[in-house]
Amino acid sequence: MAVQRAQANGITLAYEDRGPRDGVPLVLIRGQGSQMAHWPDALIDGFVARGFRVVIFDNRDVGLSQRCPVAGVPATAEAILDSLRRGAAHPAPYGIGDLARDVTGLMDALGIARAHVFGISMGGMVLQQVMLDAPDRLMSATIVMSSCRPATERGAGGQAALLARAEALLVKPRSRAAYLDAQVDEHRRWGSPGYPMSEGDIRAMAAIAYDRGVDAEGMNRQVLALADAPDRRPALAQVHVPCLVIHGEDDTLVPLDLGREIAATIPGADFHAVPGMGHIITPALAPLIVTTVSAFIDALA
C-alpha cells in the first residue's frame, strides 16, 4: 500500500488508508517512538477482512510524518536528563492535546466524521484525550496497554522514578545496526512472552522502520509531551464513549493495574486482560486482538 500524506492540524502526516472506502472507519494510533511500519500485517489485514476501513499513520516526529522542533526546547537525551537531574523544568514542545488534534485533523482530511479508534501505549493516552476533547468524533474507543495518570504518579519514587523512566525511554542517535539490536532488546524486555516474535522478523520490521526515518530528537519530543500530560482521571470519569480496555498480564513497561484503572475510571468501560501479552502486539497476538475488538464493536450495533 502506497504511503499518502495529508495536512492535519497544521502539519503533514503520512498515512495509509486500507480496506473498503465504504467500510466502517477504524483509526489506529501507534505508541511513543514507533511508526505505522510496526503494525503487524496480520492486525491490519485482520481488521480489513472484517470489513473495516483501516487508517494507520505516523504520529508527528516519527517515520515519514513532519518533524516538529520548537526553538529553545532541546530534545537531546543529554539535555533532557540534565534538566531532570537538576530538578529544573524542561518545557514540552507540544502537548497531548496537539497529538489528539492530529488524529481528528487526519479524520477531517479523509472526510471521516466519526470512527472507531484504537490506540496503544502513548496512542491510548492520545485516544483518551480525544475522548475528552472531541467525543462526538468517536464511535468507540479501544485503549490498549496504556495509562490515564501522569508519569510522575506511576508508582513510588517521585522525581527519581520519573528520571528512571526517562532514562529508559529517551534515545540517542544510533546506527542502523544499533537500532535493530535495540528493537530486539525491547522485545526481550517488554514483548509478549506468550506470543513471541522471531528475532529475524523483529530485525526485518526494524529495518523497514529505520529506513523510513528514525529521529532520536523527534522520539524524545514525544516523551516530553507525555511527561507534560495532565491527570486525565477526573475528566474521564465524566465521559460517555463506548470503551474497551485491553491490557497484557505480562506487560513489564505499563503494569496491568494501570489498565484496570482506566476501565474503572471510564463509565461502562469493558476490561479485557490477556495472559501472555506484554507491551508489544506481535503477529502471533494480532488475531486475538482483532477478534476481541471486532466482537466489542459488533456488540454495539
Any chance you could write out the topology, listing elements then pairs?
Elements: E1 4-8, E2 11-18, E3 24-29, H1 41-49, E4 52-57, H2 77-86, H3 96-109, E5 115-120, H4 122-133, E6 138-144, H5 158-169, H6 176-190, H7 199-213, H8 216-227, H9 233-236, E7 243-248, H10 256-265, E8 270-274, H11 286-300
Parallel strand pairs: 3-4, 3-5, 5-6, 6-7, 7-8
Antiparallel strand pairs: 1-2, 2-4
Descriptive terms for the model:
301 residues; Rossmann fold; 11 helices; 8-stranded mixed beta sheet; alpha/beta; 8 strands; single chain; 43% helix
Summarize the structure in words.
The chain has an eight-stranded mixed beta sheet, with helices on both faces. The mean pLDDT is 94. It has helices at 41-49, 77-86, 96-109, 122-133, 158-169, 176-190, 199-213, 216-227, 233-236, 256-265, 286-300, and strands at 4-8, 11-18, 24-29, 52-57, 115-120, 138-144, 243-248, 270-274. Helix 1 runs parallel beside helix 11 and helix 2 packs antiparallel against helix 5. The protein contains eleven helices and eight strands. Strand 5, helix 4 (122-133) and strand 6 form a beta-alpha-beta unit. The protein has one domain: Alpha/Beta hydrolase fold, catalytic domain (Rossmann fold). It has 301 residues and is an alpha/beta fold.
CA radius of gyration is: 18 Å
Shape: globular
- CATH topology name: Rossmann fold
What is the CATH architecture descriptor? 3-Layer(aba) Sandwich
- C-alpha termini separation: 30 Å
User: What is the CATH top level name?
Assistant: Alpha Beta
Discrete helix count: 11
Strand order of the largest sheet: 1-2-4-3-5-6-7-8
The percentage of residues in β strands lies in 15-25%
* N-to-C order of helices and strands: EEEHEHHEHEHHHHHEHEH
**Largest sheet data:** 8 strands, mixed
Poorly predicted segments = none
